[in-house]
Amino acid sequence: MTQPDAEALIQEVAAYLKPEDVAAVESALAFSAAAHQGQTRQSGEPYVSHPIAVARILTPLHMDAQAIVAALLHDVVEDTDIHIEDVAEKFGKPVAEMVEGLSKLDKLQFETQEDAQAENFRKMLMAMARDVRVILIKLADRLHNMRTLGAVSPEKSQRIARETMEIYAPIANRLGLNTLFQELQDLCFMHLNPNRYSVLSKALKVARGNRREVVGKILGAIKRRLEENHIKAEVKGREKHIYGIYQKMQSKHLAFSQVLDIYGFRVLVDDVPSCYLALGALHGLYKPFPGKFKDYIAIPKANGYQSLHTALFGPFGTPIEVQIRTVEMNKIAEAGVASHWLYKTTSKTPINELHKKTHQWLQSLLESLSQSGDSVEFLEHLKIDLFPDEVYVFSPKGKIFALPRGATAVDFAYSVHTDIGNRCVAVKVNFELVPLRTELKNGDRVEIVTAPHAHPNPAWLSYVVTSRARGEIRHALKTMHLGESAKLGERLLGQALASLARKPQDIPEACWDRLLKETGAKSRQEIFADIGLGRRLNMVIARQLARVGEANGQETSGTGGGVTILGTEGMAIQFAKCCRPIPGDPIIGVIKPGQGLIVHTHDCPSLRKGRSGTEEWLDVAWDKNINKLFEVSIKLIVANQRGVLAKVAASIAEAESNIENVHFSSEGEYTALYFTLQVNNRLHLANVMRNLRRISEVVRITRVKSIPA
Ligand code: MN
Known about the structure:
By secondary structure, the protein is an alpha+beta fold. Helix 8 (113-130) crosses helix 18. The chain is globular.
């Protein structure tokens, strides 16, 4: 097996490399074969077949000789007696550095598998930030391992497939290596969900056969229409990859028979104006679906992807997805950052721009890496950074910022500049003042309000999603000395007391003593520092101190005891009846005179109506360990059929939730059921709702967050 593969590799590189480079590849081939002599893979093949296969995944991308050599040698240091110095001496420093970056650390250093995985990943990331070729080789390595995963034990194959799905496939996507990305996803899906994979791939084969004729007709019609409009274009049918279809079924709750657009079409033209002309021509041929048009030419994706996307009502009601882009854009769409090697181009083309941008991205990853102490945590946040979904927001000057979905105003502030992040105190989204934790949406205009002496608030760590913001906040908090935070805390407490018309010096000694006892803090200084570091809320402490004279203080009404909101020990907390927040919901606190702290969900409509002036908004977060039940309201639309209520009630009970209250109103064939349930948190609610969705009579389920207060 190996010899023909080795020969094929040499032939492939000879097609695009200079003779002396081919010679280097040949010598690396011999070196690798000798080093791995006697080793076999789990499949029984000689081990060297693996590095050869990895190198052959890279040749279609026309990777340079150093990268091919490093691919051939990527396992020699880790798995054989060869030292990295030997590699450097024989193949040069750049190759040795790549091989070093691809070699795992000594296993004995780590206590757990997670630590080892995270630390190895960190090391590889540092190497790839220096040299993008490292990650291209690593991805090729992973692809070959995934292709040959059948030979290893089920536990190991599951672990590798999950890791690939969570980390390597998103990296391939982030780098724009689309073909590789899709193959990785399909292979992962096959191993993680073998049954669904086989059912779906069979169904897909049948459906493709059935629809071949229709597809041919549409293809012909598109070609003709473009010709009539004198647009020079290449039109191709495009099969979507299985995992892409599966994701669509999942996200839209569709059965396979309902996924109609298993075929897409791609139109390649010569220049940008022709893209829009072609779009116009096709919208004249078939009606477009409203709201489905996306212009990734004007606003490219972070991985450099550019294209127009539209969906059309085709003949016989078939929805058709069409991508329109230039030939140049198509190169990037398929090979991403690897197009740098594949299409050697001159100076300022989009391909070289992309290469530069990728370097910048890796550099910023590296920076946040050096600031986050814990590798496992870094890995978690990297996963979010890699998440392909992005929102695009605008600065007041109209500059575009791409942020991962779920990013907040604080993330935005840090993506503009570290100082903006560290000094931000408020944010206006679309000219409206909103809490800093507000999740940004596509197209938002975001204006950060800063104050010269402001400091990052540790509570931000509970909701920022970008690793950059997280790293910077950590860094700023670490460098803030305890004395400094105590001073800040004292000032904050003074402000809070002033808002209650109290002066710090008027607080009786007895109140302080009681506060220390209640909070378990050792000294006032500790309380101040806690406030300064955001571990306690200034308003809460101020209210506790000012409570003197009030009858016995206030009981923690509605909480049933136990802390649920961080830093609010001893404070009266109510959960707003209008939106009924449950743990996991983004929340905001409102302090109402005489009522204490009222917790709303972030998107509660009653908050939007504006503030009354006597209330104060507080940035609050859920406590980590909450062990109680929360009320939540849901609305179900069900078809009027016998026994449906019983089915619904049984399903709720099965999900281990209690029904507190139910009422309903009939609307013709359907009935709306309003339930008040008890759940632990959002995850629990999600389980309840998932269970309910399985009932065939249930048409719709929504969580209700807008009961008038
Ligand atoms: Mn390998």
